[in-house]
User: Which sequence fits this backbone?
């Protein structure tokens, strides 16, 4: 009996050591779980941030394209004093930057009380050669009011060509390319640019023709 | 490493737009105004990729594409068709004539840059 007594403290010590060890493992496990949860939260936040950056990148690239559109349109309109080239520039802007292959450009002739077709693409020229200013329809309305009309009376857009507040012509866009589902904000900016810069570019060609003649 | 891109289009508006978009990438640009000039420059300049408009005077883009493919010296050059017509039939014709990809007008800058880098990556692999 005397020989067995010293074993009890030893067993108790082992038991205590084991208990402490298990507790330390539990503590470590808890600490790691907390750390893991924190890392998961951080990962979620980083993924969210990454998505935001991607979306902003796409947005910035779209804005770059839009600005390039406006710059190219403006440059093309004012890059020449040749009437044919200005008209070609207007057509190319509508075809390639807005996305339409049915368009008409009229200038107002007050002597005849009508808008006379000066250029077009993809439409029946005979039908649209002359549009009386007192006719019913979007073109006459725009010519008289100087206000742009969109998606009305069978046309996608009707844009006044204005010098200051004077309407000198009208651009009609009759359809959009198949892959284009509708007008976008940049299209309206291009309409504004065509309305003012297109008008002044055409006016400048007339001045140039007068000087040359 | 910079890549040489041949732009073939009769529209100065489109050419200027494409140049502005490509200026953001590692690209050197050369230009041709119709299909005939496009084929000639493809042979003489050996570009890494060609952006080819469909509707052009003298020789349209689809015919030019087929001729570039038929020529041994240019057959390997990737071609991206640039088209106003997004109809399925037109796209199929472009692929039948040897185009690798296409973009529709109005050109989206990000889409064009992505397709260019994809095609050049594939071509380099």
Assistant:
């Amino acid at each position: 009996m005397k020989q067995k007594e010293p074993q009890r403290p030893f067993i108790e010590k082992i038991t205590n050591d084991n208990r402490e060890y298990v507790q330390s493992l539990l503590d470590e496990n808890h600490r790691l779980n907390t750390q893991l949860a924190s890392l998961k939260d951080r990962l979620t936040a980083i993924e969210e941030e990454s998505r935001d950056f991607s979306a902003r990148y796409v947005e910035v690239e779209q804005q770059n394209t839009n600005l390039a559109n406006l710059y190219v349109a403006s440059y093309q309109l004012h890059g020449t004093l040749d009437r044919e080239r200005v008209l070609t520039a207007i057509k190319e802007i509508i075809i390639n930057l807005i996305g339409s292959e049915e368009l008409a450009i009229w200038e107002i002739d007050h002597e005849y009380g009508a808008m006379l077709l000066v250029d077009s693409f993809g439409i029946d020229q005979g039908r649209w050669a002359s549009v009386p200013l007192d006719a019913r329809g979007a073109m006459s309305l725009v010519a008289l009011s100087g206000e742009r009309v969109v998606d009305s009376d069978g046309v996608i857009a009707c844009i006044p060509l204005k010098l200051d507040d004077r309407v000198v012509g009208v651009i009609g866009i009759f359809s959009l390319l198949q892959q284009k589902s509708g007008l976008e904000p940049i299209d309206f900016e291009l309409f504004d640019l065509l309305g003012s810069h297109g008008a002044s570019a055409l006016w400048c060609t007339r001045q140039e023709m007068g000087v040359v003649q | 490493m910079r890549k040489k891109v041949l732009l073939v289009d009769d529209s100065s508006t489109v050419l200027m737009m494409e140049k502005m978009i490509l200026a953001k990438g590692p690209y050197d640009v050369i230009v041709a105004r119709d299909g005939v000039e496009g084929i000639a420059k493809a042979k003489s300049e050996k570009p890494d990729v060609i952006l080819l408009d469909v509707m052009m005077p003298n020789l349209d883009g689809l015919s030019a594409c087929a001729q570039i493919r038929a020529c041994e010296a240019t057959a390997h050059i990737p071609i991206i068709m640039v088209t106003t017509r997004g109809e399925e039939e037109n796209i199929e014709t472009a692929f039948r004539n040897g185009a690798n990809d296409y973009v529709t007008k109005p050109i989206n800058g990000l889409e064009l840059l992505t397709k260019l880098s994809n095609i050049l990556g594939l071509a380099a692999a």
